[in-house]
Amino acid sequence: MLRGLGARLARHGSCALTGIIAHLRLLPPPRTAPGAGLLCAGAALSRGKPKSAIINCKNRCAKYCPSYIPLPSSWAVSIPFFHVVFTGKNEYDLLVIGGGSGGLACAKEAAQFGRKVAVLDYVEPSPQGTAWGLGGTCVNVGCIPKKLMHQAALLGSSLKDAQHYGWSISQPVHHTWSVMAQSVQNYVKSLNWGHRVQLQEKKVKYFNIKGSFSDPHTVRGLTKAGKEVSCYNIVIATGGRPKYPVHVAGALEYGITSDDLFWLKESPGKTLIVGASYVSLECAGFLTGIGLDTTVMMRSIPLRGFDQQMASLVTEHMESYGTKFLKRCFPTKVEKLKSNRLQVTWKNADLGTEETDSFNTVMWAVGRAPDTKTLNLEAAGVKTNSETGKIIVDASEATSVPHIYAIGDITEGRPELTPTAIAAGKLLAQRLFSQSSELMDYDNVPTTVFTPLEYGCVGLSEEAAVQRHGSDNIEVYHAYYKPLEFTVAERDATQCYIKMVCLREREQRILGLHFIGPNAGEVIQGFALGIKCGATYPQMMKTVGIHPTCAEEVTKLHITKRSGLDATVTGC
Amino acid sequence: HFPSTEPGAMAAAAYELLVLGGGSGGLAGARRAAELGARVALVEPRRLGGTCVNVGCVPKKVMWNTAVHAEFIHDHADYGFETPGVKFNWRTIKEKRDAYVRRLNDIYENNVKRAHIDIIRGYGKFTADPQPTIEVDGKKYTAPHILIATGGRPTVPSDSEIPGASLGMTSDGFFELEELPRRSVIVGAGYIAVEIAGILSTLGSKSSLLIRHDKVLRTFDSLISSNCTQELENTGVDVWKHTQVKKVTKSSSGLLDVTVSSAVPGHKPTEGVIQDVDCLLWAVGREPNSEGLCLDQVGVQVDPKGHVVVDEYQNTTRKGIYALGDVCGKALLTPVAIAAARKLAHRLFEGKQDSRLDYENIPTVVFSHPPIGTVGLTEEEAVAVHGKDNVKIYNTSFTPLYHAVTQRKVKCVMKLVCAGKEEKVVGLHMQGLGCDEMLQGFAVAVKMGATKADLDNTVAIHPTSAEELVTLR
């Protein structure tokens, strides 16, 4: 899935641009917290008004915000609490920079508590000029269009199956990209509109502006309406954008990314996708499924960070499905031919050879990067990881500057997933404005890769489980199963595989569950709940199966890897 | 090694377990017992696999998948595929389905043989011998443990009740149809009626569903019952409510005329005739295959409907004789029979005294259009058990993302039934695209005693329909 959030903010979020500058000014209060040493990162600040912003009682802090964070005493003294000086006509309790999944969820939740909230969102066009509306990556260039195009591809495969089920369909079936893309794009636009309406209904002020810190207390932005805004708390939720390779000639000039793919008006034609992330594999999967000649170029391993046995099965299936793979290869240049086709030159690391081929479209899926530098975080004193560029946050999503928070794809060490950003945003708003102390729990986050054969998982990969507990202390139950819908359709089910990683001790608590097969996304959600509740292997087995489904195979797992027995499921 | 022949048995080999019925429950019990070292024989007159494999879950789901393709074909154009001139040929799928079922029959037979289980072909019945004994085609067999797993069959009203009723078929006959019926009448409001009406209608047969009350699936949660009735009507099934069949006659063309009487409460009953019916299908319930077993010979008690009476360990009223699956009339589901049979095998042949199946929170899917998933208590049941003030309901209704770009829209509805202060999830009911595959994991959690807070704490998977269950407000 392409997930993530946050439309990117301005590259030049400064007054160099014409228009009226909004100064969001946060100034130190008249007094510092007496005898501080403890500082409430969230709730107390949220009360916002200068008086309540001063924490003078440890108990009180603990009561309202058990997530208080002990600070070095020097910091507590030298960095006072901030409170707001109203420099503009409007005052806001919360300013959210970035109108993606996380930012919008946080803003709307805060507004539910009767707070005045503003969202700044501005989409910087991609290098190829693609731009979109409110809603961030997920809605515009991620989960939503991706899943719809995945559905289109599944329908393409279902046409082949249908013939085994008694349907005669005249061949070849033709797919028209523009018809699909138009419906998908119209739907996305309706979602953009829906988000705007929701903000309006919840009385969240939306500014289509670029924002940038000019000092720790000031966010500047360009507003079309020419209004100045001010606020108490700031949430950065500007998400990430696809990366371009740095040392490949012609990459930026001729290549597209996932930011462009879903908005193409015409079919991308013969396509090369560089990278082996889930973004790459999902896009390659649906392009193959709608009948396009599609090649994935991967330098090393597919689906880094995922269980590697599962990752291999996913790519194995894609190969049998028709996606071509150039393994251990990396591109060196892209040139435009007279025919308008793109000639790509690459090196094969194993053979040491140089090879070329021409494509209609070259798409980079070589990772995603936070665009923190446009925010001018140095001016605010918000610390980032120098390697990843992502914002460093604590368990309460606070940055190194206590009144500035960050959620979603822009944060260091968090999963780049819409639902985690949404949940984190909501919980943050609840801590800020509703005396909640509940922190986001980032353990056991389920996810699904929507490749032609879907891969859903939750918890630890087998590798991670071995590393954490040792191979002697884990038990892996697994099964190769055949979905009933594959039998009549005579589809190969070689890669339909389930693996459950458990602790080996008596209780056999489940550490991870991995499922490859149709509807993996729908299958894994409920199991994720069970695993979140601490499910054990015997508890899983106690549940009666639902026959005939693929999901029931999970409750029938009984062959351990250790036994070396054949894990192929036979019969009911 | 084979134990010596027991006195009184005429068979060459003596067995530790005799299983009557080669369906899901019988096969599972026989195989597990054999795995645990028992000497087992299985009595079955017909092809192995029972209802599920031959005339139930498996061929039904194949037909449901076939019908799902019919639904997809409506959506192809919306997703950019041009598919002009699509035609459906029933014979193709019938042949493939039969071939697949045959293949399964063979697989089962091989599995049984590989487990060194003897297959005794024929109908078994108990004799009057002092030791519980089974007679098959004049040959007697005995064993210290005998398992009755003979299943059930569809009920057909008698011709005395409804003249001409025998002109109709049942779900068994549905799987023998060589052509797609042009005009179908399905009688019944249970899940079998709903599934078959959905399949026939979706594949293009003009279908009427006759139900006695105003809704189908009346034992399900009211949300499902109402929504499913609505969806049947949406997909073109002509649902005749408050309707019963009065008589059936065969016209000279060989087609059936079905005379029905509709009695909407508060209105005068009206009679009507559905003409030229080529498929009249009774789906008015199932009855146990117990009467030919001569159970009275061994003192195995049956209830007034013929279901074998068992305790929670599947013991009948006669020591050494057990029963499970559809013949007992409780939770008529393949996985229930399989699980109960395996539990029993572990109890009998591995000494696990407490090994028994817990019949609570058994998840069920109905392969309607769209599919239904349900586990636990209905809202009504929960209120009865916990009291109205202690039950909290969470509902949602939405259009799945799949339908975002399609002309055809089918909504998904979900209901979570929670009880007590901690809001323990005691019931989950849903109907919509993907609910069939969605339910299993949630069933594990419900079985574990998950609370609403646990659902809230589970991160969603986006974009799926299942995520709606963990984001209910």
UniProtKB/TrEMBL annotation, chain A:
Cofactor(s) for this UniProt protein: FAD
Signal peptide: none
Record flagged with keyword Plastid: no
EC identifiers of the protein: 1.8.1.9
MF terms (GO), sorted A to Z: flavin adenine dinucleotide binding; glutathione-disulfide reductase (NADPH) activity; thioredoxin-disulfide reductase (NADPH) activity
Gene3D superfamilies found in the cross-reference section: 3.30.390.30, FAD/NAD(P)-binding domain
Annotated protein name in UniProt: thioredoxin-disulfide reductase (NADPH)
Species whose genome carries this gene: Catharus ustulatus
Automatic annotation (TrEMBL), chain B:
List of catalytic residues: 462
Native source species: Catharus ustulatus (Russet-backed thrush)
Annotated binding of FAD, by residue: 61, 124, 326
Annotated protein name in UniProt: Glutathione reductase
SUPFAM superfamilies attached to this UniProt entry: FAD/NAD(P)-binding domain, FAD/NAD-linked reductases, dimerisation (C-terminal) domain
EC code(s) of this entry: 1.8.1.7
Its job: Catalyzes the reduction of glutathione disulfide (GSSG) to reduced glutathione (GSH). Constitutes the major mechanism to maintain a high GSH:GSSG ratio in the cytosol.
Complex formation: Homodimer; disulfide-linked.
Keywords per UniProt: Acetylation, Cytoplasm, Disulfide bond, FAD, Flavoprotein, Mitochondrion, NAD, NADP, Nucleotide-binding, Oxidoreductase, Redox-active center, Transit peptide
Catalytic reaction annotation: 2 glutathione + NADP(+) = glutathione disulfide + NADPH + H(+)
Segments forming domain FAD/NAD(P)-binding: 16-340
Gene Ontology molecular function terms on file: flavin adenine dinucleotide binding; glutathione-disulfide reductase (NADPH) activity; NADP binding
Family in the record: Belongs to the class-I pyridine nucleotide-disulfide oxidoreductase family.
Cofactor note: Binds 1 FAD per subunit.
Gene that encodes the chain: GSR
